[in-house]
Amino acid sequence: MSANEGQYAINRVVVVGGGTAGWMTAAGLASMLGPSGLQITLIESEAIGVVGVGEATLPHIKNFNDTIGVNEAEFMAATSATFKLGIEFVNWGRKGDSYIHPFGEFGLPNDGVAFHQYWRKFADQPGIGALDEYSLPVIAARMGKFQPPSEDPRSVMSTYRYAYQFDALQYAPFMRKHAEARGVTRIEGKVVDVALEAESGRVSHMTLDDGQVIESDLFVDCTGFFGLLIEKALKTGYDDWSNYLPADRAVAVPCKSAGPLLPYTRATAHEAGWSWRIPLQHRTGNGHVYSSQFLSDDAACDTLLGGLEGERLADPRFLRFVTGKRRKLWHRNVVAIGLSGGFLEPLESTSIYLIQEGITKLLELFPTDQKYHVEVEEYNRAMDLQFERVRDFLILHYNATQRDDSEFWNHMRTMNVPDSLRDRLQLFRAHGHVSSYDHGLFLIPSWIAVLIGQRIIPDSYDSRASRQADGEIMRHLQGLKGHMAKAAASMEDHASYLARNKMMSAAA
What we know:
Elements: E1 12-16, H1 19-33, E2 39-44, H2 60-67, H3 72-78, E3 82-84, E4 86-90, E5 98-102, H4 115-122, H5 136-143, E6 145-146, E7 163-165, H6 168-180, E8 185-188, E9 191-196, E10 203-208, E11 213-215, E12 218-221, H7 228-233, E13 238-240, E14 249-255, E15 265-269, E16 273-279, E17 284-290, H8 297-306, E18 317-320, E19 324-326, E20 330-331, E21 334-336, E22 342-343, H9 351-364, H10 373-399, H11 407-414, H12 419-431, H13 444-453, H14 470-489, E23 492-493, H15 494-500, H16 503-507
Parallel strand pairs: 1-2, 1-12, 2-8, 4-15, 12-21
Antiparallel strand pairs: 3-7, 4-5, 6-23, 9-10, 10-11, 13-19, 14-17, 14-18, 15-16, 16-17, 19-22, 20-21
């Protein structure tokens, strides 16, 4: 790192690029640091389109919205949003299989032992049933039910969280309004030149197509895959992870809604990838993620269009990407957030989470003096860890399969996985233990959902699960299963809940 790195105080931030990443960044900075006098400018060009197909999120988005003062009802009305209790995976372990990765717990721990250990011990006994039957958000999702979780930790209704499914093309304008109300200045224009300081290599200024010269203390690159500042100007480099995640294309198309308004996203595995189905208030989002090494664009599009549940509303849009991340997400005086920093395919709805995490970490480490090389190093360390752990979790879905019906699945099932994932798989197969992360997006229940959902059943179980009498544990399991089913049945229909709260009518 140059001796001149971080020689300026940070009074001005310029966000380059709009869309979801740009306007989330601007809104976050303005809400949290704007009152202290930070000047925030966003530059975008209406001539440059946005990707705008990411419509599913994780529960962390609610925390972000709450932190920056977003009203949930207004947000849902403005973005045609629905609630989301989890993600259904179809045909992943085997063709015909289905399980839901819920935003919540499986059962309740007992005597310091994880619930799935008790379930594993008695799984073959009559009346015990599948692990799904002990998860309130799974049961509610399959029933099409929704209710905000209880704040009473003693209630089974407190054992889950929720996220949103929304129209990304509507979300960016909503966040723009929120950001501009808090002092963000927007400049319409296209960057045609980026100048670097000769000695430090920092971005000195940018020139727009109308001749304006834009200077700043810190730049945030939200220019998408193009990486205008982080890559085109600073030559930061990119770690390509397509050897682990070979899907490199997607085709997306919206259709009219058909059937009940379900509170979950669906991911259905196909010959060489998978398709998403995301129910919104005004339409359904659909897409097919696939590997061009194993499937042609035409065949991928045919698979997508053949699976639509309603009338197509637009022509298919194709996207190309390379799974991976920049070698440094904060380099010199540029922070890359969103697709400019990296892309991990949308299988677990992590794109917006990684945007949010990048913003949150930037806020936590925002420089308070003229030297910030320590902050840069910590930011990159933390974000590298986030990306790597999400990567491993996504690889798990492809590798933990028994499918052998195509060249793609044979490749994914037998490929070498990162040591970090291989070690976790071996530990779980032995006796159902999942080592916890100090930091990381997906917690133990998420790993349990995918591992058991895709038929990775431990050879044994935690020996502490035998400390209680078998009959007592069996009665507890059966009672809990009944309690979960009753609680889910008492919840309101998802569509009715939206309509009652006037979110549906406001969006329409």
